[in-house]
Write a structure and sequence with these properties.
Blueprint: E1 2-20, E2 26-40, E3 49-62, E4 68-76, E5 80-89, E6 95-100, E7 140-145, E8 152-159, E9 179-190, E10 196-207, E11 220-231, E12 234-244, E13 253-266, E14 271-284, H1 292-297, E15 305-319, E16 322-332, E17 344-354
Parallel strand pairs: 1-17
Antiparallel strand pairs: 1-2, 2-3, 3-4, 4-5, 5-6, 6-7, 7-8, 8-9, 9-10, 10-11, 11-12, 12-13, 13-14, 14-15, 15-16, 16-17
Length: 355
């Protein structure tokens, strides 16, 4: 069993700077800094010290009639540009957003929304090969979210070419891509008191017909559905997602599937604990040619599938601007192996300061 220990100290800089323009617009800068010590048992490792810094620039303004707009630019990991979006909030026509591949538009914002005290099961120091539905969220896209009606919103997101590229102004991404135009649709609904929350979403992306490694009988498809209940200090929820790649050839990935669930208990305003589980499935085409009639009679027999499972116990305690967080996570078969299955353990302690 491989064990990973990670201790992190992070400082969250509140508003580092604020600039107010004469036209009632403003620009604020916030930042983060994190120092970690990582110990990898039974693995070759070098210097255990690590550092991560980031800045976020947020601009806000107001139009006539009370409508607002904003722009957010995130620079993470030593001020490397990572993502940006421009948002227009209208009074009655909903919200329009142009996103530069930040991952949160469409179904990309619902990869794992289950209750937890800190992080997702798969984001607690263990490197996995889990693949989640992202729709057009990882490409430069434009989205529209309807006004909330009875606790329900509908979101449409569109990318003219769902190629995962971040485009600068007056630039276009490369033409050589497996994917064409992509559409996402998400319906998100919650009761007035937030006791029940349900969401369902789907994504369809055209496949480039010139790519022979893709099955041309349909489009690239992704979907997600989730349900969450809150009763007092307890939150319980579960969700499932899937992605159909339509791969061709031998030993190629055909689809991924994920399911996760979690339960969180807020002991008080400062302390919360949670338990979460996640399961991931990868399905591939046959490793070698199989008789066509045999494949039709029992297709599952000739479709290799690999499972990966994880579980995490987490605790989060916050008092004032200081937070103490802990996660203990176990994963098996992190490489989607069929014969040799690699297991991982991780323990992370993080201390954060917010100011």
């Amino acid at each position: 069993m491989n064990t990973l220990h990670k201790i992190g100290l992070s400082a969250l800089c509140g508003s580092l700077a604020s600039i107010v323009a004469a036209n009632a617009g403003s620009l604020e800068v916030t930042g983060t800094a994190e120092v970690t010590w990582t110990s990898l048992a039974d693995q070759v490792s070098g210097n255990p010290l690590g550092m991560n810094t980031g800045l976020t620039f947020t601009g806000n303004g107001e139009l006539d009639g009370g409508q607002t707009f904003s722009v957010a630019i995130a620079q993470t990991d030593k001020a490397t540009y990572s993502s940006a979006n421009i948002t227009l909030n209208t009074n009655s026509a909903g919200t329009f957003k142009l996103s530069s591949a930040e991952g949160g538009a469409g179904i990309g914002g619902y990869d794992d929304n289950m209750p937890r005290a800190w992080e997702e099961v798969w984001d607690t120091g263990i490197s996995t090969n889990a693949n989640f539905q992202k729709g057009v969220g990882s490409s430069t896209n434009i989205s529209w979210t309807t006004p909330k009606i009875g606790g329900t919103t509908v979101q449409l997101a569109y990318a003219p070419q769902n190629d995962g590229a971040q485009n600068n102004n007056k630039k276009a991404s490369q033409l050589d891509s497996n994917f064409g135009a992509g559409w996402d649709l998400v319906i998100d609904s919650a009761t007035s008191n937030g006791g029940i929350h349900v969401f369902v979403g789907g994504s369809r992306t055209e496949l480039a017909k010139r790519k022979v490694e893709r099955d041309l009988s349909g489009d690239h498809e992704e979907a997600v559905v989730g349900l969450e209940f809150k009763l007092g200090p307890v939150a319980l929820g579960g969700q499932i997602s899937a992605e159909r790649l339509r791969a061709r050839g031998l030993n190629a990935t055909e689809y991924y599937a994920n399911n996760s669930w979690g339960i969180a208990f807020n002991v008080n305003d400062d302390l919360s604990i949670s338990y979460s589980e996640a399961r991931h499935v990868q399905s591939k085409t046959h490793k070698s040619a199989v008789n066509k009639m045999e494949r039709l009679h029992n297709i599952n027999e000739y479709t290799p599938k690999a499972w990966m499972n994880g579980e995490s116990i987490q605790v989060s305690y916050t008092i004032g601007g200081i937070g103490l967080k802990y996660a203990q996570t176990q994963y098996d078969n992190t490489a989607y192996g069929f014969d040799k299955k690699t297991a991982r353990d991780a323990k992370i302690v993080a201390v954060s300061l917010a100011f």
